[in-house]
Amino acid sequence: MNELSQLQGLRGTLRIDFIDSPALRDNALGDPSTRPLAVYTPPGYDPEGSRRYPVLYCLHGYTGDVGALISTRAWETNVVQWIDRLVAEKRMPPAVLAIVDGFTRLGGSQYIDSIHNGDYATYTVRDVIGHVDANYRTIAREGGRAVFGKSSGGFGALHLCFEHPGTFAAFASHSGDTYFRYACLRGFPTAQRVLEEFGSIEKFVLAFEGRPKRPQHFYETIEMLGYASAYSPRAKERWAIDLPWDQATGEIRDDVFARWLAFDPCERVASGRAALERLRLRYLDCGRKDEYALDVGARVFTKRVRELGLDVRHEEFDDDHRNVGYRYEISLPALAEVLDRE
């Protein structure tokens, strides 16, 4: 057991690998192409042994990164501690956990291939999975992999299953970004006013980065820029992104917002049936007090998938959007149970 595992109080082992991803090189934002990858292996894992394990790929939410997901806090249990506890208590089959880093200068990539951000979907399904399969004793096939995450990580799990069918056998989306007509629109007026005040995206971002403390409306603005960089980039040049509102009046630009909606998991259900059919488990949950109305998005997504004749495990609970990592106690065993084992 290494020092990081001892610090976390783990029975298994947690390591940090670093991956230099060709998919992220020379991106417009100047973000590093070398990224940390946290890999947890369960008790009894022998790198020289014959046993192979399924892998659960964890995607962090907007403003998250690997460091945030493995951090320890008083009275809370992080995702690594959850899987370690569940495996040790024999409440789920042993599995490897891999935590992917998708952070960008604007707060997050949404795990989308973007000419502005870099190709984060390709990085995840090719470079990250390739590294894990090459360096750990994994069941290196579709049936040996699941993907999950919370908030933008939940969106990323859905996106990767739609975009790269045959990569994962199951997903879990906790309070995932869905039904953009509710989830995104609330941030448009705030961002428009702030950017109008600063006069340009670049001036705002530099001011945002230069402040030791930032007001809430700054965070709401950088979030909208992060989404635009993923959903509606215009070119590879820095700040060449299309905003879904008129910068002078604030009027919604339907042509740009349509590009955002093309990524909305609710909108992708009808054309994504073949990808959804491959999955052994489709899991969504959300708190009924979610500040972004993502409980509505989960309901809409679930309804549309069920209308295709496919099963969805959909759960609601009495909470808001924050600090709902305790839901991993339910999703991680459910994912592991449907994956191949040796």
How confident overall, as mean pLDDT?
97
**Biggest pleated-sheet summary:** 8 strands, mixed
**Oligomer kind:** single chain
Note the gap between the termini: 24 Å
Structural classification: alpha/beta
Which labels suit this protein?
alpha/beta; two-stranded antiparallel ribbon; 342 residues; Rossmann fold
Explain the layout of strands and helices.
Elements: H1 3-8, E1 13-20, E2 34-41, E3 55-59, H2 66-70, H3 79-88, E4 96-100, E5 113-114, E6 118-119, H4 120-135, E7 145-150, H5 152-163, E8 170-174, H6 180-183, H7 188-198, H8 201-210, H9 216-231, H10 254-261, H11 265-268, H12 273-278, E9 281-287, H13 294-307, E10 313-317, H14 328-338
Parallel strand pairs: 3-4, 3-7, 7-8, 8-9, 9-10
Antiparallel strand pairs: 1-2, 2-4, 5-6
Architecture overview:
There is one protein chain. The protein contains 14 helices and ten strands. By secondary structure, the protein is of the alpha/beta class. It folds into two domains: 3-179 and 264-338, 3-Layer(aba) Sandwich (Rossmann fold); 182-261, no CATH class. It has an eight-stranded mixed β-sheet, with helices on both faces. A two-stranded antiparallel ribbon has the order 5-6. The longest helix has 16 residues, at 120-135. It is globular and about 60 Å long. The mean pLDDT is 97.
Task: Give a summary of the structure in a few sentences.
Helices cover 39% and strands 15% of the residues. The chain is of the alpha/beta class.
